[in-house]
Structure prediction request, 256 residues.
Amino acid sequence: MIHTRILDLPVHCATHSHSQHQLIVGLDGCADFEVMGQGGAVSRLHACLVPGHEAHAFSGRGTNHMLILDLAVDTAANIEETPNDDLSRLFEKPRFVRLDQGLQGLLDFAAHQLAVPGGSQGPISRHLGGVLLHTLHDRLFSRPPAIQTTHSLDLSRIDNFIRDRLDQPVSVAEMAAQVHISPSHFHALFKQRAGQSPHQYLLSARIGEAVRLICNSAMPLSEVASRCGFSSQSALTHAVRQRCGETPRRLRMDAR
Prediction:
């Protein structure tokens, strides 16, 4: 069984342990965690995976909102149908994991769904935990073999470039130019670094921004589509439904 909720962590340091595995990620603000001698910050960019029964210390840095996901230890290995989906692998040891834009967009949707009245009890929310864990599992364990290279790919430069041009076509060659790499080498290096192709990464960024505008503004959906680089409102609807399981109109109605 997976239980997903939003909590504000206290600013004073606390220590405890519990039988279930736990995923913690910041929706707003930041918190510090230490598990089995490993320490790190939890925020929108970094999540913490805590194995069940392991004592861990934590404290919030001022105002914060954390998405907490509990997974029963005895069900982690059998939550889905196939052996490759063994989620217990995520919790073999404590992990502090960087979240890419695709996961951040998914978290925006999760936060929205949990925040609406009765959202934590709705049918979508019951599946959010599994979607988050399986997506994280894929990022960590389904990447292609490492490429031997001395070039360091600066994702932050690419993120800034994408953010400034969400309403425009963006090519792989243009993304590669931001980090001074040939397009052919960039594609392979990018998949190694980000865990997905440049096209998938760009699409995740477009959908993430679209979901934010849908849920937090009254902007017409046609304008949302235009601002986020979709060719039409129907293209936006198709992409959002594939990623979130709901149409943009349904997301907006839930948000209200």
